[in-house]
Amino acid sequence: MSDLQCAARLIVVNPPALVDVAWLASAIHLERVQAVYAADDVPDTGPVESLADDLGVPSHLGHGDLHDGSSGLEELVDRHRGETVVVVRGGDASEPVMLLVDADGVSRQPIQGLT
């Protein structure tokens, strides 16, 4: 049975992807981002705030553990069904990833501005 609710769309970004915040904001602006969340393990929140400012959305810093399977990430999924948010968390990946999360599971999708 499929999920009747819309999936939450999470653009997962690691600190190396925040080297050029203006470029990243312009690349994802078509995704209609509602907010930017930063996990506790993000060492420098300046680029996170800059990304939120460039997108014209609120930033939420120190939002706990936002790694796959964490209660913090599940909370964001529940809060943002049918919406797109950016999740900045620790890691080494230099390319953002779009995760679609619903009751059926998690799937990955290309981000329009990055493909």
Question: Summed up, what is this model?
Answer:
This protein is an alpha/beta fold and 115 residues long.
SSE layout and pairing:
Layout: E1 8-13, H1 21-28, E2 33-38, H2 46-55, E3 59-60, H3 71-79, E4 84-88, E5 97-102, E6 105-109
Parallel strand pairs: 1-4, 2-3, 2-4
Antiparallel strand pairs: 1-5, 5-6
Helix pairs in contact: 1-2
The overall pLDDT average reads: 90
Strand order of the largest sheet: 3-2-4-1-5-6
Sheet with the most strands, sense and barrel status: 6 strands, mixed
Shape: globular
* Number of E strands: 6
Low-confidence stretches: none
Q: How many helical stretches?
A: 3
Structural class: alpha/beta
Compute the gyration radius: what is it?
13 Å
Percent of residues in beta strands: 25-35%
Distance between the termini: 31 Å
- Summarize the helix and strand pattern as letters: EHEHEHEEE
Provide the helix percentage: 10-25%
Write a concise keyword list for the protein shown above:
115 residues, alpha/beta, single chain, six-stranded mixed beta sheet, 6 strands, 3 helices
